[in-house]
Amino acid sequence: MYNKTSATLMLQTIMVLMDKQNSTGVTNFPGTFTDDAELERCYGAYGCFSKAYPWTENRPDNYFPVPPEAMAVRYPAFTRRNRKIPVLFEADNKEKIANANLDPRGPFYFISHGFLEGGHKLWIQNMADALLNLQGNEAATVIVVDWRGGSQPPYGQAVANIRLIGVMTAHLIHNIYEVLGLQHIDNFHFIGHSLGAHLGGYCGHALQKRFYLKLGRITGLDPAAPYFTKTVTLVRLDRSDAKYVDIIHSNAMPLYFSGFGITEPIGHVDFYPNGGSTQPGCKQASSPNGGSNDLSYQQVVKYVGCNHERSYEYFIESVAPSCPFMAVQCESYDAFLAGNCTSCDKHHYCIPMGYHSYNIYKRLQMGGLVDTNSNIALYALTGNNKPYCRVHYEVVMKVANTTASITHGPESGKLSITLVDRNNNKSDHMFLDEEQKFYKPGTIETKMVAVKDTGHPPIFVIVEWKYETNLFNPMTWRLLKSPSIYVEYMKLSSIEYNTDITVCPKRNKPVVANLPTIMKPKYCKFTK
């Protein structure tokens, strides 16, 4: 049985492996600076930081932030005019802001990395480019919060450092606000991954407490769980830190299962793609090589990091997505998969995941349909590789209860579908269930599936039956009968297109194993 000590040990072991890769040219800080009797330490204009409650709750250790000069936090700023060579800002240098020729129209984006990373990472560059390329963002400024000097092990020290860096970043935002003569900071959007998400929370809190300004938006990309789970809102990112807080959970599970992301809903809107814990494509792509006893740093990082990193991949894609990237409010992920939440209404709001979520949320807010003091949890399915965006269909399938079906008897296997639109474009091949399932005549199954968008709703469906014999399961034995299943009908309801289509096999014929069967609406007239 895992406990807090073993979970912490696993985290520290992973961090030591990671540290070996990140040690060159980076300052590592001591775990403590004075004895444990000191409960508060001050850092000039940035104020004082306590080590007393609530900073002791659910944390195996506790640190003060290291001084600002030791972390050397940098703020490179990019615009469409200077994509390659940024202007380097400092938290309290108004002169550099005044000389940077920033467009006061904005919007202004702040991007923060997490533990063991830095502002030079490729994903940050990709995100900055996506935001600057967005139509209508001619006046945009992207500022990277590069705190690599404070993001190194031990983990508890990095956790403490983001408290100070959050305040420093609040000073920078306030200075931009003053130098540009802005009326508000509604179009300031902080985007943080892992520890960087909580850094954004500290920034938003400091802006309100010190300068009476409220950030327009904070996006938390799989906010870190270790040291933040089950803490009070002061300690972590929460929806009071900005006018709109949206979260993408991609690795929300216990640390001893290699989970780094927080499970709790902490924003106005919390997205849980694929359930929010593991993401398609990560297990296969990230599992260490079973044929080798040498578990390299790259293998370990890839194994534990794929799900955690997928959150920022989703967000980058959501800026200019290939399809609506829709997520649906539902009671749980299981209820979503069961097809219980397929209509967009006042009981199940539909909000696009990622960048464009605020536009829909504001409409709901203006219509008095959402309470900004409460949370909306939404679910979506994605693909296992880029582009990740998929469109969702509720599939209701009935196994025929006809004489032929009853005579044939129950079947065990897997059904797959391929959707075909009016331009004869085909979706990807999608199984209704990953494992073989037992189907009896008269059975009605309801499933949620997601496929690549072809640009139009389907007009017919190609159905296939995959049958595998299991020597230990007599129900799979077929000696005299061909492996097949009698499907009476399939009804597909699209969330994104808001359309329904019911298709049937021609003349009630069965779907035979390894033989694609075309089902069309016009064939349903033969169904009895």
Automatic annotation (TrEMBL):
Coiled-coil region(s)? none
Query: What InterPro entries does this protein's entry cite?
Result: AB_hydrolase_fold, Lipase, Lipase_LIPH, Lipase_N, Lipase_panc, TAG_lipase
Could you list this entry's UniProt keywords, alphabetically sorted: Calcium, Disulfide bond, Metal-binding, Secreted
The cross-references to Pfam families, in alphabetical order and at most eight, read: Lipase (PF00151)
Q: A Gene Ontology molecular-function term?
A: triacylglycerol lipase activity
GO CC annotation, single: extracellular space
Q: Where in the cell is it found?
A: Secreted
In the UniProt record, does the keyword Calcium occur? yes
Sorted alphabetically, the Gene Ontology BP terms of this entry are: lipid catabolic process
Q: What is its main location?
A: secreted
Instruction: Report the domain of life of the source organism.
Output: Eukaryota
Residues at the catalytic site? S194 (nucleophile), D222 (charge relay system), H308 (charge relay system)
Q: Where does Ca(2+) bind?
A: R236, D238, D241
Q: Which Gene3D superfamilies match?
A: alpha/beta hydrolase
Q: Residue ranges of the Lipase domain? A: 40-360
Could you say which protein family the record assigns here? Belongs to the AB hydrolase superfamily. Lipase family.
Name of protein: Lipase domain-containing protein
According to its UniProt entry, this protein's organism is: Helicoverpa armigera
Record gene name: HaOG200620
